[in-house]
Design goal:
The structure is a single chain. The chain has 191 residues and is mainly α. The protein has two domains: 1-87; 89-191, no CATH class. The protein has five helices and no strands. Helix 2 packs parallel to helix 5 (151-183) and helix 4 (102-136) runs antiparallel to helix 5. It is elongated, with a radius of gyration of 23 Å.
Amino acid sequence: MGVTTSSRKSFVGHVELAFKWILHGVQQSEAVIGFSTLLITTFLIFASVANRYALHFPALGLNDLALYSFIVFMFAAGAFATWRESHISVDYFYQRALKGKPRAIAIHSVCIVVISIVLASVFLDRAHVVLLRALKYSEYGSLVRWFNESWLVVVFFVAICLILLHLLVILRRDIGELVAICRSPAGGEKA
């Protein structure tokens, strides 16, 4: 028995809904991780300074923990910025030079995202090599000698994967917009 067109559309609709739900969860997780690690970093630096000048407790590793928290914040913020399209394009160029030319703006957007995907893929390839080495050989901290720092490499790899995921979603959307503009009468260009 063959699958009907309506059941196929229903299945595709459910898959798209599930993907949107998962992507929303990933995006919200990035925001929460970024916000929390920024708060933790701020608290640890404040505690370190207060300890250094007022309390004088032997608190080895506060600066190291602040640095680790800040690194996680930066990786989460990079993925978050990609999702929000905050830092992946130069807005001035297309706002001025391509003003009133929707097709040119759409082509520019697709090109910027493709270049970003190529660069993220290059980083992902190198990050994968470093990830495998970090998983095989542990690297321990200098002040807190028992603390394994290899997890930072795992966080970096996951951040690059998230950035690549967001770029692919953005590319799908931008290609859809470009196709819609090209199909419209007059190609979306103003007369």
